[in-house]
Amino acid sequence: MKEILEKANHLSKPPKVGEIVEGEVIGMEKASVFVDLGPWGTGIIYGREFFDAKEKLKTIKIGDKVFAKVIDLENEEGYIELSIASAGKEIVLENLRQKKEKGETVKVKILKANKGGLVCEIEGLDAFLPVSQLSQEHYPKVEGGDTTRILRELQNFIGKELEVKILNILPHAGQVILSEKAREADEMKEILKNYKIGDKVQGEITGLAVFGAFMKFPLSSKASQKEKGASAGKGKEIIEGLIHISELDWKIVEDPSDVVKVGQKVKAQIIDISNGKVSLSLKALKKDPWEGIEKKYKKGDIVQGKVTKLNPFGAFVEILPAVKHAHPSIQGLCHISEFGSQNKIQDVLKIEKKYSFEILTLEPREHRMSLRLVEK
To answer: Coil, helix or strand for 328?
Structure first.
């Protein structure tokens, strides 16, 4: 606010259209208010500007100081036309900009929920907290990403207060985008200083989503002591990290529930720590089935395989060892080009059925094997 007035109230310069000025109310009529602007003359709030701010003007009396926005330097009667409503919005936006720049935390009350997130108000402006900006604790962990169930989870927040940070301000839309995740990130950054990539942690699966599984694990003794000392017992007692679907297993995972269940106790390895978030991996603690695979197979070999999935690229095939349990399962791809069309591949190959395939290429480092169906 100080910066706005410094631009507008410099005595050597008259105000400009769009600037915020401060003045004293010197007169009030049925549909107009007169404001003394000192050396610049007299301002007037009337017409549409009066009715837009009618409720606020009811509480104003002669002698009160008001902030207003200049919308015309001189009307037909020689007054400077002012807007209280526009000034209020400008002042609010400036205050919010400053809070955003300082990284301040604000409390908001949730008014509504939709499939995209939570709706609230901040200083009279519409505000929105997207699902993606919820903390991991509050993120709706819905298996399969069912939007109806996500909405039901979000509706539980209506009427509650959440601590958030201002992520973005959209002046033209009169909307503020909020983030609970950003507030949590600052706290987590300090806690996660006690961990490093490669650390192994024991925890519990707390939720599943289409993109992976959430896992909570207790603070290390070092982190716990530091956190208690810093926050007098108000800090986190557990950390929640994400195991991305690609880190659940070495095999291709379509649904996280095929690998883990909510409540299951698991051991994971920290593979990334950034922006107050921790990424975990289950497969990092499992033997890579592709390790040494070139000693067992080579280009041109005929192998038995079970079709596990059909998609627009072709068929994923689980290679079956000649001797049961001789090695962990690996998957190859029989490309759609081997069949000509998706309809043809669906006619020829059936999921869970076994067929003979020829290995066309084998790239262990890239975990890639391409196959060709051997016609019987």
So the answer is: coil
What are the pLDDT digits (tens) for 6-40?
A: 544 444 467 888 888 889 999 999 889 999 998 88
C-alpha 194/C-alpha 6 separation (Å) is 46
DSSP H or E segment with residue 241: strand 238-244
**What is the Cα–Cα distance from 337 to 51, expressed in whole angstroms?**
69
Domain count, the chain: 4
CB atoms within 10 A of CB 217: 22
CATH number at residue 10: 2.40.50.140
Q: At what angle do helices 180-191 and 221-231 cross, to 10 degrees?
A: 120
Element (H, E) at 23: strand 20-29
DSSP 8-state class, residue 78:
S
The pairing of beta strand 238-244 with beta strand 277-281: parallel
Q: Are residues 63 and 129 in the same domain?
A: no
End-to-end CA distance of the chain: 81
Angle, CA of 199, 201 and 202, to the nearest 5°: 165
State both tokens at 191.
């806690």
Q: How are beta strands 42-46 and 65-72 bridged, if at all?
A: unpaired
pTM of the model: 0.56
Q: Provide the token pair at 208.
A: 């599943």
Neighbours of 218 (CB within 10 A): 15
CA distance 24 to 18: 19
